[in-house]
Amino acid sequence: MREFWRSGFGATAVERLCAVMDLSPGSLYAAFGGKRELFLAALDRYMEQISSDAIQRISAPASGMEGIRAYFANLVDAIAEGRRQRGCFLTNSLIELGQSDPEVWEKISTNLARLETAFATALTRASAAGEIAADPGAKSAAFLVCVVQGLNVLANTKPSRGYLNNIVASALRSL
Q1: In 3D, which of 25, 15, 29, 20 has the Cα closest to residue 1?
Q2: DSSP summary character for residue 74
Q3: Could you report how far apart the first and last alpha carbons of the chain are, in Å?
């Protein structure tokens, strides 16, 4: 997963994958079927580990806005501290392969829909609790997903924490 995240699908050589996994090419092909199948398994792993944790951050607190703030604080920390210096594996994969590989597109769009649903649910909770003036609806959840994707792309430029926090603050003020 980290090799594909670091270099993308096209630039990651099977030889490099074998080296980091301590496998021979024959073992890699026997275990996964090929580079593409390993890549798809890496996307699944990322969604299982990283994306599920992110959605849990949004959903866990009783306060909808607290969940949204916790999500963005974690994302900003990861970018500012260099844990996401290459952005998001899913975002990068979407940019690289989303138009040419329907299976990659399906996996990533399903994950983005999960994120949007988590935001929509948190916004509904925030509205019911009086944390925001009115339930902003699905458009605001989609907007937050766009902010996330923009931050993930900006991560490649090594932005400052202050710059990222200003973007998040502006986005949350709009709610």
Answers
A1: 20
A2: H
A3: 35
Q: How far apart are CA 98 and CA 38, in angstroms?
A: 17
Whole-angstrom Cα Rg for the chain: 18
- Mean pLDDT along residues 11-29: 93
Residue 175 has a CB neighbour count (10 Å cut-off) of 18
By the 8 A CB rule, do 6 and 86 touch?
A: yes
Residues in the chain: 175
Whole-model pTM: value is: 0.90
Looking at residue 149, its amino acid is: Q
Secondary structure (3-state) at 61: coil
Contacts of 35 (CB under 8 A, 6+ apart): 9, 12, 14, 17
| Sequence letter at residue 129 | A
Write out the H or E segment, with its range, that includes residue 16.
helix 14-21
CATH numbers and ranges of domains, the chain: 43-173 (1.10.357)
What is the model's pLDDT at position 87?
Answer: 86
- Given its phi and psi angles, is residue 8 left (phi above 0), alpha (psi -120 to 50 degrees) or beta? left
Average pLDDT, the chain: 93
